[in-house]
Design a protein that fits this description.
The complex is a heterotrimer of chains A (54), B (323) and C (63).
Chain A (H helix, E strand, L loop, with lengths): L1 H6 L17 H18 L5 E2 L5
Chain B lengths: L4 E6 L5 H7 L4 H8 L1 E4 L8 H6 L5 E7 L2 E3 H13 E7 L1 H5 L11 H11 L14 E4 L2 E4 L3 E6 L9 E3 L6 H12 L16 H4 L45 H4 L17 H12 L5 H10 L3 H5 L14 E2 L5
Parallel strand pairs in B: 1-2, 1-3, 3-5, 5-9
Antiparallel strand pairs in B: 4-8, 6-7
Chain C lengths: L1 E5 L10 E6 L5 E7 L6 H4 L8 H4 L7
Classes of the chains: A mainly alpha (54), B alpha/beta (323), C alpha+beta (63).
Chain lengths: 54, 323, 63
Amino acid sequence: MKKMLTQLGIEEERVRLDWVSASEGDRFAKIVNEMTEELRQLGPFSGNNGGDNG
Amino acid sequence: MAKPKLALYWAASCGGCDVAVLDTNEKILDIANIADIVFWPIALDFKYHHVEAMEDGSIDLCLFNGAIRSSEQERIAKLLRAKSKVMVAFGACACFGGIPALGNFTNRDDIFQRVYIDIPSNANADGVFPRTLTEVNEGELELPELFDTVSTLAQVVDVEYFVPGCPPPVDIILKVVDLFATGQLPPVGAIIASDKTLCDECERTKEEKKITKIYRPHEIIPDPDRCLLEQGIICCGPATRGGCGLTCIKANMPCRGCFGPPPGVVDQGAALVSAIASIYQGDTDEDVTRMLEEIVDPAGTFYRFGLADSLLKRKRIQKAEKG
Amino acid sequence: MKKISIDPITRLEGHGKIEIFLNDEGDVANAYLQIPELRGFEKFCEGRPVEEMPRIVPRICGV
């Protein structure tokens, strides 16, 4: 999936796969915070910057 | 009673769909008997101004093949839509974008740069690109604008029916003509093919879908009787609509999805990622890394004919800010 | 100058138009053939597996 998304110009950091069980509340919070911070660094996703008819 | 009027047109196309209609062989005479063909550039000498002069809705059936990637293709799509009662997206390009939609991995500037400057087979010392307006001594010449993005027909105009395939097989073409001639057209929005996946139609033996290695089609000689996917060759059958008669499978080559997604699947490529991932046996990180190396061009393989029809539609364009 | 447009040219594979400019005597001063299409195979084949080329490039021309 990541390889395909990279081919389509989407940074692989925008997709993350993790397994968290219902009893791992702290770990869930940690992962979400980490990803949120990464995404903040990447900035908002702009679909097409300057392309026409897209 | 006047014969119904039929029009055929090609946008970003290869002509294969028009040839497919001609492949009906002697039955083309039946088609010509049933209908008045009022526009068909590959075969008849009608011009755009003839179409412009027609009354709106006076064309009974328009078979439109080819994807939309220029202002002229968009204009003629809209013109034919206005003049036609029924518009059919004919062939994989009009339905899903087709091979031309692989252009959505790139953009106009990069295409121009490659085709007119970088390519070794072109001598273009002045670095001329096509322009929409060119002044010559005698006056002005116009060319349509080429878009960055390839669209399907339905993304540009309303479409009543879809006939998939690259090209649509002769039996489906004859079925379309027959349904139209006998007034038995299905509900609007129908895709005129099977309602099942290719796997359902495939006659190869299927045992267990568990693979530990993926082969590129040239790396092995597949057993012609066994499921290709089970032999480790990526086949798009699981997420492709059936009805094609298994042309590629019978040639011992894997399906590449030219009939588009099956009913219920919105994004063909995503469905294929899911299908392949679900049969690949791998427990370790090494397995996953190896698998990724073995699938050489996932986006181009899983969206071979349908990039324009996918949820993302195209590769993200990031142009430098202008002005 | 009077201009005659033949658009589209027909009964061949591909898209084209011809613009013919006539001078005051009604003779052809110049004629231009234009190809109003480009799909970009030369570019979008880059990055595709080589063994897929025989399945992609025949779609340049279906005739």
